[in-house]
Specification:
By secondary structure, the chain is an alpha+beta fold. It folds into 2 domains: 57 residues, no CATH class; 72 residues, no CATH class. Helices cover 31% and strands 15% of the residues. It is globular. 12% of the residues are buried.
Length: 156
């Protein structure tokens, strides 16, 4: 393929989400890694792409970033509601008691990610997400990403 050849292709939403999930599972959490991994033969095999130089590529960092940034607050609320609804569907009748386990934890960050802020207790740049599980079963109900300088009780 010559440098002037323009290669256009279409990746489905399923392929984009799958690529992002596989990258995270493989330890490549940063979207910048997409630029390198889009040429990786193993990742091409996963998506049924021919693992040859010049063959159809996977999504680049800008494409993966656009995918992540297109999610709206309403969609996030629907995802949260989905987990709560699934929990409730697993109980044919109302349980006598529901015990919630609410834990905030430090998620160390490096660089200048949005909402990554210094937390005095941990002494580092972090995100400070909160995870709500049903305590008896461990079923995850809500995971909420909070800025790094959040108080432990914020949003609980």
């Amino acid at each position: 393929m010559s440098p002037t050849t323009v290669c256009t292709f279409y990746l489905s939403l399923f392929q984009l989400v799958s690529q992002r999930i596989y990258q995270i599972v493989a330890g490549y959490e940063d979207t910048l890694d997409s630029n390198y991994l889009r040429h990786d033969p193993i990742f091409k095999i996963i998506y049924d792409k021919i693992p040859q130089m010049g063959a159809e590529l996977l999504a680049s960092q800008p494409t993966i970033s656009r995918l992540e940034n297109r999610i709206t607050k309403q969609e996030i609320k629907r995802i949260r509601r989905f987990f709560v609804d699934k929990f409730l569907q697993n109980h044919p009748s109302a349980p006598e008691q529901i015990v919630l386990d609410i834990d905030g934890f430090d998620a160390y960050t490096h660089g200048h990610q949005q909402l990554s802020l210094f937390h005095g207790y941990y002494g580092h740049q972090i995100y400070f997400p909160v995870l709500v599980n049903e305590a008896n079963s461990g079923y995850p109900l809500i995971l909420h990403l909070r800025p790094g300088n959040s108080h432990a009780g914020k949003g609980v």
